[in-house]
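User: I'm new to structure prediction. If I give you an amino acid sequence, what do you actually give back? Let's try with this one:
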Amino acid sequence: MNKKKYLIKIIIILFFISTNIDILKSQEDFYYYRSDGQKVYLSPNLQEYTIKFKDDISEEGKQDILNNNFENFEMINFSKDLIRISFPSSNIDYKKEFEEIPEIEFVSYSFFSESGAVIYFDNTFHVKFKKGVSVEEIDSFNKKYNVRIIKRHDLIRTDDILYLNEIPWDSPYSILEISRIYFESGLVRNSSPNFWGGDNEPF
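Assistant: Good question. You get back a string of structure tokens that encode the predicted 3D arrangement of the chain. For your 203 residues, that looks like this:
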């Protein structure tokens, strides 16, 4: 009997260790680049998530789906498309649970910035291409990753063009991943996720 209890304890400890190792490994991917090439690391906030339901889900349906899957949460309409879900202080990672709900199209952690502020992502990011990169090159690269330009800002002082791009909500890439892909391509001077909240560093 004592051996059984000891074995159960060992299994629980190993499970806890492996779960935390997975979280730590995944945290290595939570970064983007500044224009000087420095990595900016973010820490996931397990208490708050940003989600988007599929367009055909009613407001009542959204509430029912969340109530059937989670307890003790706060639901805040964040924008036209996005909802912020807040849980009490907890070390539980709910992201996978959100991802398993078929009616949810998009889910992201909220994050702590380097200054400790809480920030939120959607499916958009800013890009400045290097001078000399042609329109054809830009179009080809955007098409490769299913990226769409939604706004263009002509910066007169620096003679630059700042693009606000978006990826589909169901893109296989997170907004941090696509920002890094663009920066590492060598075609851009800056590629940074668009976010709300915090002090909006470094934009």
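You can read the tokens as a compact description of the fold. Here is one thing that stands out. The chain is about 30% helix and 35% strand.
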